[in-house]
Amino acid sequence: MSKQEKPDRRAVVHEIRNSQKSADRRKGGMIIGVSVALGLLIIVAAAWKPVTDALSTREFKAKELSTIGAPASSCQDVTTAPASGMMDHVEPGTEIPYEESPPAFGTHYDSWEPMDRKFYGEDRPDLGFLVHNLEHGYTILWYDETIADDAEQMEVVRGIAAKFDGDDMRNKFKAAPWTSEDGEPFPDGQHVAMTHWSAGGAGESDTSKQVGVWQYCSEPSGEALETLMTEYPYMDSPEPGGG
């Protein structure tokens, strides 16, 4: 082997190494580029839904509650049953079996959900908190998994909830999901339930007159909700003064 061949071989090896480094840099650059692009897509996707939800609810805020969703004829007649559980408090996390789907009264946690939250999705709190809200005069619109899987119907539910923004006591309303893990399904063909814990009349102190109030609907109905909340206002509850 001549003396000239050795430097040539070294040059070839050097060239190969340089080419490999360049390829590695290009590969690294592509990975970074793809990662950045994916990160931006995730950020945009996360921000997109709140933006579209806000635009949707803004549209409903300009409407009268009674004009949102299905007519009241999509709902069954209001039913009641004797209520119990007033001031029957247990620690959060305690398992509470509720016989009705959904509950309108009963044993509940010793704390409740704040008034400023009107709509709940998959992040809904345990039932024990919401039943305490019922004791304080709230009306709750529960929607089942059929409604949850229907984008248009969910817009209506959000629109209804948007009508109750604010901390005025008359806005004691919440919309929350009811799932198969919570209990039995609603009656056949009914996918929405509205519940209220009535004291038997505003200012009524005789606990024997308390009743749970239910109204089931095939679709969310602002008209039916408005009628129900007029007949059973927040003052018609065991503890209307609580937030």
How would you describe this protein?
By secondary structure, the chain is α/β, with parallel strands linked by helices. The chain folds into two domains: 1-62; 67-231, no CATH class. It has helices spanning 5-61, 127-135, 145-148, 151-162, 222-231; strands at 79-82, 89-90, 108-109, 139-143, 173-177, 192-198, 211-217. The strands form two sheets. A five-stranded mixed β-sheet has the order 1-7-6-4-5. Helix 1 (5-61) crosses helix 4 (151-162). It is elongated, with a radius of gyration of 29 Å. The termini are far apart. The relative contact order is 0.17.
Entry summary:
This protein is an alpha/beta fold and 243 residues long. The chain contains 5 helices and 7 strands, in the order αβββαβααβββα.
Domains counted in the coordinates: how many?
2
Strand content: 5-15%
Overall geometry: elongated
Number of continuous helical runs:
5
Cα(first) to Cα(last) distance is 94 Å
Organism: Nocardioides malaquae
InterPro entries: DUF3105
Keywords: Membrane, Transmembrane, Transmembrane helix
Pfam family, one: DUF3105
